[in-house]
Amino acid sequence: MAEFTPTVPARVLPAVTVRDLPEPPRSTWRVIGPGLVGAGVGLASGEFILWPYIASQVGLIFVWGAAIGIITQWFLNMEIERYTLATGETALTGFSRMWKHWGLVFVFMTLCSNLWPGWVTSSATMVTYLTGSGEGSVRWIAIGMLIVIALGLTLAPVIYLALERVIFVKIALVATLIVVAVLFAVNAESWVQLGRGLTVDARFPVPPLEFSVLMGAIAYAGAGGGQNLCQSNWIRDKGFGMGQYVPRLVSPVTGHQEAEASTGFQFAPTKENLARWRQWWRFANIEQAWTFAMVSFVTIALMSMLAYSTVFGRSGLANSIGFLQVEGQVLQETVGTWFGVLFWMIGALALFASAMGIVDYTSRLASDTIKTVYLRDKSVSVNQVYFLVVWALALVGIGILLLGFDQPLILLVFSACFAAVMMFVYSILLIILNRRALPEAIRVRSFRLGALVWSVAFFGTLTVLVVIQQAQNLFGG
After folding, report:
1. Which alpha helices (H) appear in 312-373, and where do they start and end?
2. CA–CA separation, 243 and 259 (whole Å)
3. What pLDDT score was predicted for residue 43?
4. What pLDDT, on a 0 to 100 scale, did the predictor assign at position 376?
5. Pairing status of strand 17-18 against strand 265-266
6. What secondary structure letter does DSSP report for 14?
């Protein structure tokens, strides 16, 4: 083959280096991890509150929506991973090669979505259900959690490995809860209704639930917003594809390996490299399908079945953390005190692990973009930028909690809008990036290109609906 000229654009950032694609692992087990981390971080209030709440109001006739949302996100994640597998760069770096500030735009929206510490107060509230300490202690428990999260993420020698272990423990705990629930609390009728909800009874339950709420539930089943983009960072730290050439993110305090600015590499489309690519692509698809997609759907389905078996038809249930208090109390009454305690304990730990993952992915996206695009020639390392962002998020959250602010309506509006807008825009950018920046042999095409077009249409519609609804809430009418 003639000398290969890289196809990755180099107008904004330096050109990539041509290297051969590393050999894929002999066993799929060696690459298991990023999908589980994505599923584990995503198993938060949606899986514990929103989907069970929907089941409590309308039964299991809408579980099909979770399957649609997760399949859509699986295709999105794979296109995010495609670019990283082929170059070792994150998707945000790829976007920044098209326009310098794309990465910063997504970082800004992710920060605005996650700046308010609601993701840690949910876990703290669950702790109060266990201890009976009352709402007044939520603030102090949440502050303690923020400090633990920041210490854990900045002192771990290899940050991805620490997060992976926390998420693995979380998934094991949730799996334990599900097994116990199936044995003691999930009734036979819920299995029948699940089957019907996926087939003959599948429909949009409008009314009693708002169409925009249901669309949002579909969109954010599994993950959503900036979290999907972080699949790039997680698979790179796991050593997928060309990511093996990029140093991992480590603690600037205890780590020994420095992760540098992450412009990457590209392989020539030789027969040998394309053979390796097919194996890597197969591994990555299997890992995402059986970890992210399967774990996310099974959790949503079974947590919804648990809610259906215990609180379906009960009036006055809130679509908030208070829903879990009622569900735990019903489990104590119907199964036994021990099960209600187990439910709250695992819920608190699961939401804490999600909070840790949210801080990690927000800080990863910010630090990688800031260092790679804006601080390339500065002596500061990406590890140090990560350290600063983690502690800034923790300290801002602590400050908000100490001041006793309630979450302002405007931030709720921004958070809801940003996630929908992000997924709409980066679905478009992924089509452009994976069609123009990669060699023809590995470009997105066929049904996967169709899936991205569907994603653009779906999240575009959701963006319009969310903006209209939130504008009405904010300004009245």
Report:
1. 322-334, 337-369
2. 12
3. 76
4. 84
5. parallel
6. P
Spatial separation of the C-alpha atoms in residues 466 and 225, rounded to whole Å? 14
- Residue 66, token pair as written in the block: 């979770």
Amino acid code (one letter) for 204 = F
> Which residues does the chain have with pLDDT short of 50?
261
Q: How many residues does the chain have?
A: 477
The candidate with the shortest Cα–Cα distance to 365, out of 91, 117, 88, is 91
Say if residue 22 is preceded by a cis peptide, omega within 30 of 0.
Answer: no
CA 93 – CA 372 distance, rounded (Å): 7
The pTM score is: 0.92
Here the tokens at position 108 are: 């800004």
Q: State both tokens at 43.
A: 């198993």
- CA distances to 186, 211, 302, 371, 375 from 305, rounded to whole Å, are 6, 22, 5, 45, 49
Q: Are 181 and 328 in contact (CB under 8 A)?
A: no
Sign of the dihedral through C-alpha 411, 416, 422, 428: negative
Give the separation between CA 4 and CA 470, rounded to whole angstroms. Answer: 50
The structure tokens listed for 376 are 């390339």
- What is the Cα–Cα distance from 422 to 229, expressed in whole angstroms? 10
* Residue (of 80, 146, 139, 178) closest to 423 by Cα position: 80
User: Residue 344: which of 183, 141, 127, 171 has the closest Cα?
Assistant: 127
- Alpha carbon distance 143, 19 (integer Å): 46
Element (H, E) at 427: helix 409-436
| C-alpha to C-alpha distance for 166 and 172, rounded to whole angstroms | 10
List the structure tokens of 177.
Answer: 């809860």
DSSP string, 270-336: -HHHHHHHHHHHHHHHHHIIIIIIHHHHHHHHHHHHHHHHHHTT-TT--SSTHHHHHHHHHHHHHT-
Under a CB-based contact definition with an 8 Å cutoff, are residues 250 and 256 in contact? yes
Instruction: Give CA–CA dist 436/368, Å, rounded.
Output: 23
Do 287 and 398 form a contact (C-beta atoms < 8 A)? no
Question: Cα(158)–Cα(258) distance, rounded to whole angstroms?
Answer: 11
The CA–CA distances, whole Å, from 407 to 114, 118, 436, 454 equal: 12, 8, 42, 34
What sections of 13-158 are H helices per DSSP? Answer: 34-42, 45, 51-58, 63-87, 91-98, 102-114, 118-131, 138-155
Express each pLDDT in 274-326 by its tens digit: 999 999 999 999 999 999 999 999 999 999 999 999 999 888 888 778 888 99
Evaluate whether 207 touches 10 at the Cβ level (below 8 Å). Answer: no
